[in-house]
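COMPLEX REQUEST
Ligand: S-adenosylmethionine
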Amino acid sequence: MTKRKTSKGKGQGSGRGSNSWKKQNGPRKEFVKVEFTRHMPVLLQSVLEQLGLKKGQIFVDCNLGDGGHSEELAKLMDGDITIAGFDLDQDAIARAKANFEIAFKDLQKKPNIIFINDNFRNLTKALDEKGVSKADAILYDLGLSSYELEESGRGFSFKKDEPLIMTFSNKRDGGSEGEGEGEGDGVGETASAISEYSGADANGADSVQFTAEDIINDWDEENIRTIIESYGEDKFAWKIAKGIVKARVLERITSTSKLAEIIKQSVPGFVRFGKTHPATKTFQALRIAINDELNALNETLPQAINKLNAGGRLVVISYHSLEDRIVKNFFKKFEEEEEGKILTKRPIVPTEDETDINPRARSAKMRVFQKK
Ligand SMILES: C[S@@+](CC[C@H](N)C(=O)[O-])C[C@H]1O[C@@H](n2cnc3c(N)ncnc32)[C@H](O)[C@@H]1O
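STATUS: Structure written out below.
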């Protein structure tokens, strides 16, 4: 995972495609010597182009994260833009606020930023409550940020020794501090088939009802296997599920490193010593299940298309085939329903230059739809 220097010096808010990252920040090693992690916005230049925004317009950033895309957009617009930024993670909202304070200090006109600590599955309701009736462009940059992976302490990485939590939101049980409950419209087929494995509550609210530790220790073997197969597409899911259930008889599994070791011991030797860590797919699967990621995506995309002004763009960056399939199918459906047209017959992917600097971008696929 590439890190970006977040102090006020070089590196702060400077990303405009990989070449200018290199020009302004020097060779790759510069990015590794950091004070703390700032998520590097993926496909930044293409995103700015594809959003097609003009000064004075309204932009919805559904995955604010560290605010990288929004920050560069606001600078490009000389601050003359309204941004409604969603993030489920309270830490992300706080980090984006802090980053913006530095980044926009010297702008004569400050962007109008509306922070929304809520799930993007509640898009319509949350925006309506903030008085945002329509938007000129909407961006999704799915998944998790470098901060969440590396520093949140919530157990997203099998390379760390952390408690098995894996929730984007820090909220537990007590309901949403955010903008309210789920809309629940239009759950798509892919995710609804396995929707009972959702970590969100029945209303689709953003409080989290269970963690990775709960799944690993309390669920039966068949359900654990189904999650790893469905969301991780791991062909050794059955072996991993068996290994987990056998290990937990001796002792409750509470840490990422313990789980990673159990997975390693459960898979065949050629996988154990292969190029990719054998826990990669299981960790992805658990994260998707706990955060109910596919259902949230299925619910939000129809809301997004309804929120767009005529000519407005919907831009989605996904990081694995399950997400990309949902986006692709929705865009096809929108076109069939004469909502507008697909602008990317094939997804836009990062250049080698970008993935060299930011390996996280490697699996990114960006699709763009324009409303009629
Ligand atoms: C890849 S990061 C976004 C990075 C951001 N574009 C940047 O340049 O800094 C994804 C963010 O989306 C948030 N997130 C994931 N699923 C979400 C959801 N359903 N609703 C709201 N936020 C979500 C995560 O907490 C994370 O901060």
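REMARKS: The CA atoms of residues 89 and 169 lie 5 Å apart. The chain has a mean pLDDT of 85.
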